[in-house]
Write a structure and sequence with these properties.
Pseudouridine synthase; 10-stranded mixed β-sheet; 4-stranded antiparallel β-sheet; Structural Genomics Hypothetical 15.5 Kd Protein In mrcA-pckA Intergenic Region, Chain A; 319 residues; alpha+beta; 8 helices; globular
């Protein structure tokens, strides 16, 4: 089995860190790997409770007996914006989990893609890595409750072409979100270093440069609204990096969380979201610009605002 090297976060137990980073597998699965000496830190055998230090390198030899079977196709509707022999561009609805994980073994976007095009199971970045096999076609992700545009690869060649562009940061991704309050500046750049929250490991937080990964987001206020005495803004985000929860964390730390975001919202934004009957974070991946495999020119694909965001905007403009 091919080995991979994975950078750690400081101060975390090895087994706990791996279970959080690779949610398809349980903590007990990694405990088993560690006991079998299939997880090394800096090339040395370890115990499951070993605390990781800055710049430790973890080498993982995944074993074949994985927790989940390869995902199967399920009859789940897809909103396909564009499709050719190499890629599919889809408009993902809010509420749809992208790939199987603990607690979501089925009813995901992957299951829908396999049903629509079974050969997408061959679109794997690394066939010797069981995590790759659980995510055929995926070159990027959206949170469960974030709607909008995604591109998926239909074959291995396309997988490597799209992945390379994303890794090289040549792909342009534009999001829009309804946010609490009016930013002091109508446009600007949010730059920080993100990593796991030190107390709540399900959350992402702004942390030190030494421990975090750089996250850069340009923002531009499209429109401002009021609801009674509350201020609301429609903001466009141009992400330069693709970190987990990047927009949600950064705009919340700027004081203007996404409406409906109960994870990173504050007391005022949550109260307003309740009054407006908002049930999910109103963040939408609006536009994607990328070069399709075998082509030299970029193409731009766009997903219109979903009904729930459009409805709130209509209510605000009539207020």
């Amino acid at each position: 089995m091919k080995k991979i090297v994975y950078k750690n976060e400081i101060g975390e137990r090895t087994d706990k860190f791996l279970a959080q980073e690779f949610s398809e597998f349980s903590r007990s699965y990694f405990e088993r790997l560690i006991l079998d000496n299939k997880v090394l830190v800096n090339g040395r055998k370890i115990k499951a409770n070993q605390i990781l230090k800055l710049d430790d390198e973890i080498t993982i030899d995944f074993i074949a007996q994985v927790q989940h079977k390869d995902p199967q196709g399920e009859d789940i509707a897809l909103n396909i914006i564009f499709e050719d022999d190499n890629v599919m561009v889809i408009n993902k609805p809010a509420g749809l989990v992208v790939h199987p994980a603990v607690g979501h073994s089925g009813n995901t976007l992957i299951n829908a893609l396999l049903n629509h095009f079974p050969k997408i199971s061959e679109a794997v970045y690394d066939k010797e890595n069981p995590i790759s096999r659980l995510r055929p076609g995926l070159v990027h992700r959206l949170d469960k409750d974030t709607s909008g545009i995604m591109i998926v690869a239909k074959n291995e060649r396309a997988m490597h072409s799209l992945s390379k562009q994303i890794q090289n940061r040549t792909v342009k991704k534009i999001y829009v979100g309804l946010c609490y309050g009016w930013p002091k500046n109508e446009e600007g750049t949010m730059q920080s270093f993100l990593g796991r929250h030190p107390k709540n490991r399900k959350k992402i937080a702004e942390i030190s440069e030494e421990k975090g990964k750089e996250a850069i987001t340009d923002y531009h206020v499209i429109d401002n609204y009021t609801h009674n005495k509350d201020k609301i803004s429609l903001i466009e985000f141009d992400i330069k990096t693709g970190r987990t929860h990047q927009i949600r964390v950064q705009i919340s730390n700027l004081g203007h969380p996404i409406l409906g975001d109960n994870f990173y919202g504050n007391r005022l934004s949550e109260k307003l979201s309740t009054r407006l009957n908002i049930s999910r974070q109103l963040l939408h991946a609006k536009k994607l610009t990328i070069s399709l495999p075998g082509e030299s020119k970029d193409q731009t694909f766009e997903a219109p605002l979903p009904d729930d965001i459009s409805k709130v905007i209509r209510e605000l403009t009539q207020n």
